[in-house]
Structures are given as structure tokens and as C-alpha cells.
Amino acid sequence: xxxxxQSPQSLHVQEGDSTNFTCSFPSSNFxxxxxxxxxxxxxxxxxxxxxxxGDEKKKGRISATLNTKEGYSYLYIxxxxxxxxxxxxxxxxxxxxxxxxxxxxxxxxx
Amino acid sequence: xxxxxQSPRHKxxxxxxxxxxxxxxxxxxxxxxxYRQDPGHxxxxxxxxxxxxxxxxxxxxxxxxxxxxxxxDFLLTLESATSSQTSVYFCAISEExxxxxxxxxxxxxxxxxx
Lengths: 110, 114
Known about the structure:
The complex is a heterodimer.
Chain A: E1 5-7, E2 10-14, E3 19-24, E4 32-38, E5 45-50, E6 56-59, E7 62-67, E8 72-77, E9 86-94, E10 97-100, E11 104-109
Parallel strand pairs in A: 2-11
Antiparallel strand pairs in A: 1-3, 3-8, 4-5, 4-9, 6-7, 7-8, 9-10, 9-11
Chain B: E1 4-7, E2 10-13, E3 19-25, E4 31-37, E5 44-51, E6 54-57, E7 64-70, E8 73-78, E9 87-94, E10 104-105, E11 109-113
Parallel strand pairs in B: 2-11
Antiparallel strand pairs in B: 1-3, 3-8, 4-5, 4-9, 5-6, 7-8, 9-10, 9-11
């Protein structure tokens, strides 16, 4: 069973500020790193799938980086908006499904 | 949104009864997954399927069985439900395996075992 850790567990950010949080995972036998956004009362929504060391992905104001050698990924949100409030999940795995972290709960304060 | 329907959406039942949850997809995706989500835990994989009649166990498979007799349906069965199986269950699908394909999730089934 892979051990995927996310930090911090929760985060309060002022509207307009930028923020970032971390996902740590075992660097051995790495295949892919996934990021999902999970809004309250909805289902998780895929943001990024990253596979190569040094990968950077961007979707609007959200971006992510990947370091497979040291086993971590960062998710960045630029200019936070209220609609960014959600739990952000990372997961790693391969052909046999994903192992998820417990998530970072992000609250954007107006 | 990916065409994934979970049924029922809510269920309350008693310890010892059998329970079957259904995941139906209209995307013709090869891979289907069942997860459970509990406070203090991330999503945990119960079972997954990589094709019709092809299934395998996940991290927390004890007490659960699955079946996939056709591409669009993946059933999760609790043969004799226990209170520890009270949880929110999510189905997910992907076009290929998770090495480079995202998973798409259903809306979840909230199951309470009394």
C-alpha cells in the first residue's frame, strides 16, 4: 500500500492571495500523479495527470509541478477566488488503481 | 460530465442483510473502480475492473465482492453488511488505466448500516 501524504490538512486564504500545497509520495515504482478538486456536495473532478519528472501543468489559475526523484508535487493557485474553495486530493498509482491522500481543505475568505 | 450513474443514492439497511450498489456508465470506458470515503481517510480502493469479467482487489476488499457482466455496469455487493461498512461509496471510470488517464467519478452512494 502506497503512502500518500498531503499538507497542510486545511488552509484559509484571503481572496486574491496566491497559495500552494504539497503532495508527497514514494518515489520508487512511480507511474503517475493525479490531482483532483472536490467541492462540497459534488464528486471529485480531475485537474491533472502528471507522469514525467519536471512536468508542469496549468489550467487557468491552477498549476502543478512534479518531482518524481524526491517524491513530491506542488499545486499552486494564483489569485484565489471563492469558487476555489474545495478539498484538493492527490493520488498516485498505476495499472491497479489509485492511492489517495487525505486532501487539503482550502477555504477562501472574502 | 462523464455519464456515470450510481444507484441507489442513499440506503439505510440493517446489519446482516445483503446490499448491492450499482454503477452504470455510458462512456464505454474499460476501467471501473469502487472506492469508499470515510472521515479521517482518503478515498480507498475496494475493487476495480479492467474489462468484462476481469476484476481485482483493492486496498480494502474484505467483506465486498464485485461483478462486471457487461461493459456499462459494475456491481458492488456486501454479502452480509456490517456497521463498519457504513460509508459513502464512489464509483469511478477511466478510459484506460491510471498511468496516464484521469478517473471520472459518480455522485456517490451514502450507505448506513444500523
